[in-house]
Every structure is written in C-alpha cells, then in structure tokens.
Amino acid sequence: MTKSNNQTDTILIVDDSPQNMQLLEAYLTAAGYAVIGAYDGLEALAKLEEDERPDLIILDVMMPGLNGYQVCEKIKDCHDTSRIPVMMLTALTEIDDKVKGFEAGADEFLSKPVEKLELLLRVKSLLRTKHLNEDLESARDVIYTLALAIEANDPYTRGHSERVAEYGARIAERMGLLDEQVDVIRNAGILHDIGKIGVSETVLQKPGPLTDTERIAVQDHPAIGEKICKPLRSANLLLTVIRHHQERFDGDGYPDRLSGEEIPIEARIIAVADAYDAMTSPRPYRPPMSQRQVTGTLRREAGKQWDPDVVESFLELLDDERRLAGHATN
C-alpha cells in the first residue's frame, strides 16, 4: 500500500555490530525515518513475518549464522517481501563481492565506512522508486478490477476475458514462447476489451446488425483500451497487444491495418483466443456456435483473419485436450 505524505518510512537495519547499528540509526532518525533493528539474519527474517513490514532494509553482509547474501536471497524469494528494496553494506571491496550481492537480489550496494550524505541520498532514491512502483501497482489493480467489473455487468461476456487469458497463455506455451511473453498474453487477455467502457451498452448488446456509426464506435475500443492502460508498470508490450488484438493477418483489421508479422505474435495469439471464446459463447445476435462450426471457421480463416501457425497450434491443443478427456472417461 502506498504511504500518504504524512506517514513515516520505516527502515530495518540488520547488523551484528551495535556500534554500526547506533551510527546508522542516528543518521536515519535525524533524517526523519523510523528505524527498527535486528542483530542477525534470523532475527531480521522473523521481523519480516510481522504485520508491519519495513519500507527498506539495510543489510550487513558479514554476520554470524546467515550472512547478508543468504538473507537477501530469502527476502527476494518470498512473494510478500520481494518488493522491499534491500541495500547491502560491506567492508569488502572486491568487485566479485558486489556482483554476488546483486545476484542475491540487492537493489543497492554501499561500502563501509558509510558516508552520511551518500547513505541518505541512496535511501531517498530507493524509497522514491519503491513508492512510485506502488502507485503504478495500485493503478494496475484498479484497471484490472475495472476490466472485470465491466464484463460482469454483461451476461453475454461474463468470464470472457479470463477465458481469453487462459486460452492465450496455453497457446503461447504450446508455441514455445518465453515465460515473459506468456505473462504479457495472460495480462492482455484480461485487459484486451477494457476499451469497451467507451462504447455504449446499447451498441454492445444490440441484437441486430450495427450501423456504420456504431461499428466505428466499437472499432475504437482497442485504442481506448491502450489509453486506459498507459499507467501500468512496464506496459509497452502490453499496450501494443491491447491496441492490435483486432488486426487481421491479411491487413484488413483495425485500428492500424497491420498485416502478417507486423502484428506482434502476442496480439495474434490473443486474436485467436478471443475469437474462439466469442464463437463458443452466446451473443445477443446469435446462440453459441458448435465446436464443429468453430473449428471450421478457424481453419477457413487461417491466413486471412488469423495467423495460420497460431490457429494450427490452438487446434492441436484442443485435439490433445479432447483426447485426454476421452481417456479420462474410459
């Protein structure tokens, strides 16, 4: 949770030397920070189990029992504490020691003896970055909640985005995409239709054909979604997928009429997952299509509306799942 302006940042100092602890505490409290201390790694990890976690950890490297590298690894490997910035302090001067600290997940490295001004500048920088990231994460949570809330109000699309996210991730895994790309696809699946908040419900739920004006309004939703999601952290590729999930492989889609490999592979995958779920779900203007109709449409439009490699991978995935389901019932 992001701190308000009148809340004090709390810093956990982990150092087995009482003299070092007192010096750091004096510097930091004089600068307006709240300080808690731990004299070894186990005590520090125990304090991190408490409800009120620190905003920053200053961690000595050379300590009895668990050393600073080991403590840092445990902090960064734990989901609940991984985003707390860690500054490691050491009298060691070899570059390999600093490399080892960064490999353990340290966010900053400071050599002893500590200079007060340098310490306070680095602390301020780490905390500013942490709070900025928290603001961006809060924006993400709001946007995700908004996307699912919009969908939940429409009986025809309830659960659609979550299914698209799951289908898309499974296609990506089958095609051997990187884990980072799979994550982008899963997030894009949740958010791909958020731009429909800018389209009238009357249009979205219209049981008959759309007018030209209504069609243009619907085709605006990828660009609107891109604008809504701009506050998201590390969102460049995600924004691209949201914007281009309605492009066609033959270049006749929207909003930018990209074609073929001009369309990011993540967007091409979301396009197939999105179409599959739409076709297999009821809509105001038609009942759900049969599996035979859907697979026939996917094959017929491969190379035209959709990337043929993505379609082939998805159909193979569906065939494998049907076979597995058949074995399970026998």
Polypeptide structure, described:
The protein has 14 helices and 5 strands. The mean pLDDT is 87. The protein is elongated and about 75 Å long. Strands 2-1-3-4-5 form a 5-stranded parallel sheet, with helices on both faces. The chain folds into 2 domains: 10-134, 3-Layer(aba) Sandwich (Rossmann fold); 153-325, Hypothetical protein af1432 (Orthogonal Bundle), CATH 1.10.3210. It is an alpha/beta fold and 330 residues long.
- CATH architecture call of the largest domain: Orthogonal Bundle
CATH class label of the largest domain: Mainly Alpha
Mean residue pLDDT:
87
User: What radius of gyration results from the CA coordinates?
Assistant: 26 Å
The third-level CATH topology of the largest domain is: Hypothetical protein af1432
Could you give a quick summary of the protein structure above?
A 5-stranded parallel sheet has the order 2-1-3-4-5, with helices on both faces. The model has no long low-confidence stretch (mean pLDDT 87). The protein folds into 2 domains: 10-134, 3-Layer(aba) Sandwich (Rossmann fold); 153-325, Hypothetical protein af1432 (Orthogonal Bundle).
Essential attributes:
five-stranded parallel β-sheet; 14 helices; Rossmann fold; alpha/beta; 330 residues
